[in-house]
Amino acid sequence: MTALIVLFIAFGALLLVLGCMNQRTLYWKLTAWQYRNPEANEPSDAALALNRFGLIVSAVMMFAGAGIVNGAAGNPSGYSTSQVRSVASAAASKVESGTDSGIGSSVRASSDVYDTVNEEGDGNVKIRSAGGGEYELTNREGENPVCLTVTVDNRLSLSGGEPWSHSISTSVNEGPC
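User: That's the sequence. What structure does it adopt?
Assistant: Structure tokens below.
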């Protein structure tokens, strides 16, 4: 990216210098050689002024392009706290919807959290386990933390029905875990 920015700036500076030069001299130095009779093909004052205007506008566009590329390079992921929170909420709803009965549900819940964050975040959200069912989500740069808490309540029932069951509850809070 840096090379592209430097290229935009260098080309913009060249165009600006050419735009500030005497346009009639530029014609004689750069273009007149193409004609058998250059005096007969010399451009009018209006054409030279239009050429100067075009060079200066092109230089400004090059500088603007360098600024745009620099802005895009400086903020690659750009995920704000609300976007990270949205990914955490999607992971929470997926974990809560998968409330099958059976043992080992906390392992499945953890796996679902990681899978959903990777899917919903498109690689722009990092996740780390903070222990105790807490997961800290941040953007790619490690900024804008959101804490996702997953609580799994496993129950053993000896009185008929299904012997093993569980319930899952989640909460999403802004800030680190």
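Residues 125 and 144 are 10 Å apart (CA to CA).
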